[in-house]
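User: Fold this one for me? It's Cora-domain-containing protein.
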Amino acid sequence: MPNPMILFSIQSPHLPQIFLCRCRICLHNQSRCSTFQDWQRKRVLMSLPLDLLRQLLDPELVWLQMHNRDQRQPQHFQNHDEIIADDVTEEGDRDSNYPFRISHQLDYDAIADYLTSATHDSTEFYTSYHTHTTQHLQKQRRETRHQHPDWYYHQQHQRFTFHSDATETIRSPYFETLPFTTTFDRPVNEILRAGPFWLDVCNPTPEEMSTLARVFRIHPLTTEDIQTEETREKCETFPGYYFITIRSFDADAYSMTYMQPINVYIVVFRECVLSFHSQPIIHLNNVLRRIEQLKVYGMSISPDWLNYALIDDITDGFMPSLRHIELEVDAIDELVLILKDREQSDMLRRIGHARKKVMMLLRLLITKTDVIKAVIKRCAQRLAPDSETTLYLGDIQDHILTMVQTLNHCEKTLTRSHSNYLAQISIELTQASNRTNDVVMKMTALASILVPLNIITGLFGMNVKVPGEEGETLVWFFCIMGFMAFLAFVSYIWLRKNLH
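Assistant: Here's what I get for Cora-domain-containing protein.
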């Protein structure tokens, strides 16, 4: 019988991080391994380098964690006697979500080691990505010519923004090239431990997301939502952090993507905040400017406050567009009843555009109330914000509800204006039809009067003898004319009496 393959994790104070290892163990008669020394005496063949095994100076401090192959979740054991032969994993039984991270705290040393020792894996990849970014930048410049080119160039190429009390704000095109070692004399791990920090990432590549997920121990479900650009706004709690998906929009009226949603993903740890978005957003600079203003008064920031500030700025970004829509709706409501026919040619188009903007903003705001409620609900949990931040979040919720009510009112106003406009158009059409009918009736009456006269003139206009044509007097002529006038007068009196 071949030796089974056992999957377990090793954690030791002598190791910089947690390793997930596979080993073969000889189980004689289903015997158990009571201590780590027994594992060594039974000649455990571990898939670790020999120099790394030598770092395990004190085997009693090594902590083992078995992984159940059925549940795919780690199983914690109080002592090693609970490890039995049933907890085995076949050679081909793998899971893409491995390795499991046991500790729920950030490993500053591992992050520092990565930042100080990481190099570009492929120069061609970064050159190609830089070329792609430059082409995308040129396209965006053509679409947004009114914007300041220096600001947009800076935002596109400096995709990683790092801020903390110890470093202020530093930017870099790549995560590995953040200028910690070249700008500051302090070690990277001390800079990270100095206080809460914020890392903002614009348009991350799959390789960069994989690196960040490994360094910061982000759950694969979170990574999947960020990479696939999940559009549903939500707040989820994971071991060690909570994850928020919220949507902003492009408020630039001259942009080709005006009013298009922008997904913003926020990962809030106890020690830091990570934010991700697919294109540059103005909220980053607004929050950084707000942080600098608070530092003047000696106020410190926390990850929960950073999360609040970012959500608050995203929410406040709706206010200018909302005020513009309010003015437009009020103007439409007033002008729809007082404009003349010639001035109402574009009224229907204005109503349609205004309603489209209202529905877009309403769709973006209506789900934010559930997100804020979920964040406030986390206040009773271990990783939730403190009570002061909860008050601020409640204020955001009030603003969102106020804006939703305003948009609902605008939607009702536009609906009423649309109905009034259609009603007015219908009245004008009815009035024009009535005027046409009056003219037709008058023409009909005139034709009715002239029909008998046409009969008389038609009869005597043929090649027949006309009375009095042989005489030299005009008596017959005036008699015929008098008779025709009398007949016209009688027809007029009859038509007037019957038509009215």
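One thing worth pointing out: The first strand starts at residue 5 and ends at 11.
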